[in-house]
Amino acid sequence: MGSVRAKSYMDLHREVSADIDAERDAALDLLGPSAASVRAAVAELLGHRTFAYPLSVLPLIVHGAETGAPGPAVPLAVVHELWWTSACYLDDLADGQALFAAGGLDESQALLATVISGTPLPLLVVQSPRIPEAARGPLSAEIVKCWILATEGQLRDLRADLGAATREAVVTAYLGKSGAPFSMVTAMAARLAGSPHERVELWREFGNVFGILWQLFNDQHDILTGRDEDLVNGTVTYLLACVLEDVTPGSTDRLLELHAAARTSPEARTAMTDVLLAPDVLRTYERDIDTFRDRALRLLDELGGDEAHLALLRDLVDRASPMLLRARDTTARAVPAS
Predict the structure, then answer these.
(1) CA distances (Å), 146 to each of 76, 87, 118, in order?
(2) Count of H helices and E strands in the chain?
(3) Per-residue pLDDT for 333 more than 50?
(4) How far is it, in rounded angstroms, from Cα 332 to Cα 254?
(5) What is the rounded distance in angstroms from the CA atom of residue 44 to the CA atom of residue 110?
(6) Which of 9, 41, 85, 330 lies 20 to 30 Å from 206, alpha-carbon distance?
(7) DSSP state, 52?
(8) How far apart are CA 4 and CA 130, in angstroms?
(9) 2 part of a folded domain
(10) Is the residue at 312 inside a domain?
(11) Is residue 105 classed as helix, strand or coil in its secondary structure?
């Protein structure tokens, strides 16, 4: 007999996706009969923005780890979807990307729907009768805190000084951009489960570390898919910080020039990618990914809880932390002149 495949977080999502869909519709109904246009615009925005990875189940798994029952955290899965739908659209705006690509909504309609999706509607969800009264205030505070931290991370990203970039500085930005929303839902799930403060804070720390891992995972995919959005936008990524911390002083100006040219030049982007994929750089990058992964797994060991749901979380950490990039052979490629 063959071995039975272990259950993954995606398996859980398939099991609960209908419940999440129903909860999302119920959340839209919270907008009330006098806001029919708002409801339609937000529904259009949600329908247009789809996610390749069903990470909305993360709060369900955390609640399951605490109580053995993931179901009560389904509203938090909707909060996760609403928050990320809004954040991704605002991120496109910050990066200067066109706003018209939001289903049938024009730019103004999409922006208004984004505002509602990001804060008012998640607050309505956690203030609804589906949430125990004692938890409503703390969960609402988590949403507000998350937006402040995420905005801080985005501003750090936009204002990053490439010449002074370090891995530590990039991690600080990543803690806002990606750590804050994941730590929001992990802390919310623990609060909803009635966990003591110490465990809530450990779950928050896990969410922060997982958020860093997920940002590193996304950064790798940006290169592997050839989208190169980080280079086009001039983003200071962790991989780029690995290069900058190791570059010789005499090469810094040339690297900064190449990075600036990569925003508009495909040839410069190819040359910059060659620099990013140098063997020594990738060795540092892989070592640091492993460090973050080990930290996340140690937190899960420290937390303990329902073993079936902890196994799902370990699976999720493993899927977020592979080393996907490979060194390039650049021996036959000429670097564009300055």
Answers:
(1) 14, 11, 11
(2) 16, 0
(3) no
(4) 20
(5) 9
(6) 85
(7) S
(8) 36
(9) no
(10) yes
(11) strand
* Alpha helix positions (H), the chain: 9-29, 36-48, 58-67, 74-94, 107-118, 120-126, 133-158, 167-174, 180-192, 197-224, 229-233, 238-246, 252-261, 266-276, 279-303, 307-320
Nearest CA to 219 out of 276, 263, 275 is that of 276
Would you say 169 and 251 are in contact if contact means Cβ atoms under 8 Å apart?
no
- How many residues does the structure list for the chain? 338
CATH at 307:
1.10.600.10
Domain count along the chain:
1
C-beta of residue 317 within 8 angstroms of C-beta of residue 300: yes
Whole-number Å distance between alpha carbons of 43 and 109: 12
* Boundaries of domain holding 48: 9-320
Q: Is residue 300 part of a domain?
A: yes
171 falls within a domain: yes
* Residue 200 near residue 303 (C-beta atoms within 8 A): no
- What pairs with residue 41 in β-bridges? none
C-alpha 219/C-alpha 285 separation (Å) is 12
Token look-up 């020594």 returns 280
CB 272 within 8 A of CB 231: yes
Distance CA 99, CA 93 (A): 7
Tokens describing residue 190: 């623990």
Task: Round to the nearest angstrom and report the end-to-end CA distance of the chain.
Answer: 63
For the record, the structure tokens of 126 come out as 């956690």
C-alpha 137/C-alpha 157 separation (Å) is: 31
Dist CA 20 CA 130 (whole Å): 13
The model's pLDDT over 122-179, given as tens digits with 9 standing for 90+, comes to: 999 999 999 999 999 999 999 999 999 999 988 888 787 777 789 999 999 999 999 9
